[in-house]
Amino acid sequence: MKKVLQIAGAYIGIVVGAGFASGQEILQFFTSFGWISILGTLVATVLFSFLGMKILQLGSRLQTQSHKHVIDLICGKALGRVVDLFITFFLFGVAAIMIAGSGSIFQQQFGINPLYGSMIMTLLTIITVCFNFQKMISVISLMTPFLFIIIGIVAVYSFVQYGGSGELFQLGKTENTAASNWVVSAVLYVSYNIAAGSAVLALIGGAENSERKASLGGLLGGIGLGVLLLLINAAMLVNFKEIQSADMPIVYIANEISPVIGYSMSFILLAMIYNTTVGMIYAFTARIVPSQKKSFKPSVILVTIAAFLASFVGFVKLVSTLYPIIGYLGMILIVSVIIASFRFKGKQISENEAKSMS
């Protein structure tokens, strides 16, 4: 059970990232639709659980050391090459976004020059990824319980303070929504998170010999993501007037409770960004250079420095440019995973068989 919880924690840590933990993405994809967004979080929970379970299971079945084999199996050889190319590119892009986001948090919450904040994140990422992947899974899952605790405190405080106002069910859709429909918005939210995280999930699955443990880890991780999503969304619904113009809504609410909670939330947010950066850099480098080769660690250093340089484009601009594209790519991946789950149900597939079948 310990291994299952580790995998679930790693899944949560990889997907959460900057926008999830800060609440900004959830504000646009869910909260801005009003009370109906609660149903949207349930749709997202089901998708996170199913997709995480299947991708981790296939990774374990293939014992893959690169996400390419899983993508080829799910999408087929022709489409798989295109999807693999885009995912590999976005791994690097998301890493740059996370590094830029860390600089923004250091500046906003601690008054530290964003350049120094991004440099700290870059150095920590290089040090962590140069360990083996099993150790990295433990590092990634380490902060997850603290995230649940701090989000739980924020949610409880919000309901006690504002939950009786009766405004929750009066709140209608605003103009600040990511899509025209709450269902499409929920699916789009899951799709870009899965597109960005699928490569790392495949590697986590490949590091686990037991398909059952990998699948259960994906299921529990998806449920955990759904719980976090529901808590954050609910907390923002009852604080909607106060947080709708905030860059980091959850941090804003945490600071309203007390400075201690606010700083704690900021540290948790940085930890989640760190988790995501480590996962993206590892998966991107492993796709280009196998992790067993001596050139892997030098490649990690070069790739991470390149992501640091790319982060100078700016956090907001990177998010607004890359995330919508990743979302539509993710929809292709979601459909392919669903089809693959029926095609290969009950089959034991070796890596060689997967290559020939694709």
TrEMBL record:
Domain of life: Bacteria
UniProt keyword Transmembrane helix present: yes
Keyword Transmembrane listed: yes
Name this polypeptide is given: Transporter
InterPro entries, per database record: YkvI-like (IPR038728)
Keywords: Membrane, Transmembrane, Transmembrane helix
Transmembrane segments annotated in the record for this chain: 33-53, 82-103, 115-133, 140-162, 182-204, 216-240, 260-284, 296-316, 322-342
